[in-house]
């Protein structure tokens, strides 16, 4: 089990770690050495960058996906069930659609509800990384959700490989996986979210969780047309 099964916050962690370091060091060691040892102990508790804002200025133009982007915009502007799940084969262009949305927002060619919004990718892998202590994963995800809620819809979460949220963090001794932590926020309609996954992974993970599936409007992403493919290749 966990060495320290219940911690409330970073301050308590620091106190426990300091006691641990002092227990194995002599009084003659300088505080510089003690602090160095303490810093090493605290490395797992540093918060990684789990939200990465898409920089529209660095994104390439998206060709042949205007209809898909329009549909995503319509979903995001709903009062309820305002989250979309992009479902399609790997490499079909799901992420490109989200990037196209980010470019539209930056250009101001979106409805009033999305003016001034930004799209931020939620890195599930970074959330799980280094969560050796009970409650750390949950806190990281809740912090990200709170940022989205506090933005009044102006921070749109993008979860690539959204099937990964099913089961993510559940083995860390916490209160549930990412999907279960995310569901209440999605149900309240206070955050806008876009997920992306393959058809197979959607069937295998998302469809099996009826409560999670209900929170997202599925958008099937097809292969680009021949004309669009030629235009993409021509740049």
Automatic annotation (TrEMBL):
Domain (AAA+ ATPase) ranges: 80-225
Top-level taxon: Eukaryota
Cellular-component GO terms for this entry: cytoplasm
Membrane spanning stretches: 21-38
Annotated Pfam families: AAA
A single GO molecular function term of this UniProt record: ATP hydrolysis activity
Name of the protein in its database record: AAA+ ATPase domain-containing protein
Organism per entry: Aegilops tauschii subsp. strangulata
């Amino acid at each position: 089990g966990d060495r320290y099964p219940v911690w409330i916050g970073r301050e308590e962690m620091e106190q426990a770690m300091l006691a641990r370091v002092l227990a194995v060091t002599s009084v003659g060691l300088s505080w510089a050495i003690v602090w160095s040892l303490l810093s090493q102990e605290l490395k797992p508790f540093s918060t990684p960058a789990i939200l990465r804002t898409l920089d529209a200025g660095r994104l390439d133009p998206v060709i042949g996906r205007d209809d898909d982007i329009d549909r995503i915009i319509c979903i995001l502007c709903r009062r309820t069930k305002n989250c979309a799940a992009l479902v399609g084969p790997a490499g079909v262009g799901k992420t490109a659609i989200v990037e196209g949305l980010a470019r539209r927002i930056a250009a101001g060619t979106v409805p009033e509800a999305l003016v001034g919004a930004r799209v931020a990718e939620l890195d599930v892998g970074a959330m799980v990384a280094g969560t050796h202590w009970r409650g750390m994963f949950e806190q990281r995800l809740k912090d990200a959700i709170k940022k989205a809620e506090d933005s009044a819809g102006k921070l749109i979460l993008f979860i690539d490989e959204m099937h990964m949220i099913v089961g993510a963090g559940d083995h860390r001794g916490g209160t549930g996986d990412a999907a279960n932590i995310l569901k209440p926020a999605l149900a309240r309609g206070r955050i806008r979210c876009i997920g992306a996954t393959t058809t197979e992974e959607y069937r295998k993970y998302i469809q099996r969780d009826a409560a999670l599936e209900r929170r997202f409007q599925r958008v099937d992403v097809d292969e680009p047309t021949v004309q669009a493919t030629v235009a993409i290749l021509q740049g």
